Amino acid sequence: MKIVADENIPLIEAFFNPLGSVTRLPGRSMTAADIKDADALIVRSVTKVNADLLAASKVSFVGTCTIGVDHLDQDYFAAHSIAWSSAPGCNTNSVVEYVYAALCHLNINWLPVTFGIIGCGNVGGLLYKRLKAQGVKLRCYDPNLSLAQNPDLTTLEEVLQCDVISMHTPLVTDGPYPSFHLLGLDELRQLKPGAVLINCGRGPVINNQALLEVIAERDDLRLVLDVWEPEPDISLELLDRVLLGSPHIAGYSYDGKLNGTEMIYQALCKHIDKKPSASLSQLVPPMENNLLTVDESIVANGEVFQIAQALIKQVYDIAADDARLRSLAQQARAGEINFAQGFDGLRKHYPKRREFHNYRVSLPGLDDTDKNWLKVLGFNCV
């Protein structure tokens, strides 16, 4: 079996070599010639898998190591008997931790605010569950859910009046509930003064040109964008106006990517009727030197949000993601580099980020209520 895979997928050989020969290629620039002789294609979200890519191939299985599937032509797969699989939930925790890291960096305590979530599937649903456990007032918009599934569902207009809004809807262009340009000029103008708008779902869910127009009219909005319209040729003008910007890496924790690799490996094994012989527990050893502490004065102050800030910064310095993207923009403006290529380069060479659950927290004097609050974030309090 010949397997062609995105070069950014970790442990691809360790998992897939027992199944056949693996060829790594840049995901965004894969061509029909690259996969002509492939039996299986393993990608991430940057590869558009459609007739143009597959028509001349013998590919019988497509796997994407991502939650999203808008880059896959499922109708073509069905018409040509091509099996496919995604990795729902693989990087859910990574994206939720990105949201918490962004709020901590911006010094926004989410406990006393009204928090809006647009899209409550895998990612939005987990964020909702954790915020709910921390006692946050929530408003959610997801027309695919019922009040029985989420008692805090309301209208989009109500969510747009929240203090913080986090977007986690997939990109849907047809059907009864399309999400393409869900937030356009009219919706963006409804945002309350000082609102925080976070998008780490899909870039085109927000009309980026309309967003530029709105922030030109008012400078009170606080924007965090991990996804853009379009990628990788994003608007550098828009990047200048956001408080935090990153190159579509919210779900790029090492743990999340590993989960995706394992899930697609298992799906291909099922497709070819072969029992899986590898697992993450075998291939990835536990972290060492993973004990975290914070200054005693912060603990004594009794503000659990400040403790969370100190812990999260040790684990994930989100400001570094922002700095790398802005440095790239500066180099592109000086003519030193092609921005689109650099954008993909930042993703390809993204530092290894481990999720909160890999770390133990030792904070003598912290009461059980605050320990439980930190456990909701994912930390292991000892």
Task: Provide a descriptive summary of the structure in words.
- The protein contains 16 helices and 14 strands.
- It is α/β, with parallel strands linked by helices.
- The strands form 3 sheets. Strands 7-6-8-9-10-11 form a 6-stranded parallel β-sheet. The chain has a 5-stranded parallel β-sheet with strand order 2-1-3-4-5.
- Helix 4 crosses helix 5 (122-133), helix 4 crosses helix 13 (304-315) and helix 14 (318-333) packs antiparallel against helix 15 (339-348).
- 41% of the residues are buried.
- The model has no long low-confidence stretch (mean pLDDT 96).
The major β-sheet equals:
6 strands, parallel
Low-confidence stretches: none
Overall geometric form: globular
- How many distinct beta strands? 14
Tell me the helix content. Answer: 25-40%
State the end-to-end distance. Answer: 47 Å
Mean pLDDT: 96
The SSE order reads EHEEHEHEHEHEHEHEHEHEHHEHHHHEHE
Arrangement of strands in the largest sheet: 7-6-8-9-10-11
Count, helices: 16
Strand portion, in percent?
5-15%
Evaluate the radius of gyration: 21 Å
Structural class: alpha/beta
Protein name: Erythronate-4-phosphate dehydrogenase
Domain Erythronate-4-phosphate dehydrogenase dimerisation: 306-378
Active site: 202, 231, 248
Pfam families: 2-Hacid_dh, 2-Hacid_dh_C, DUF3410
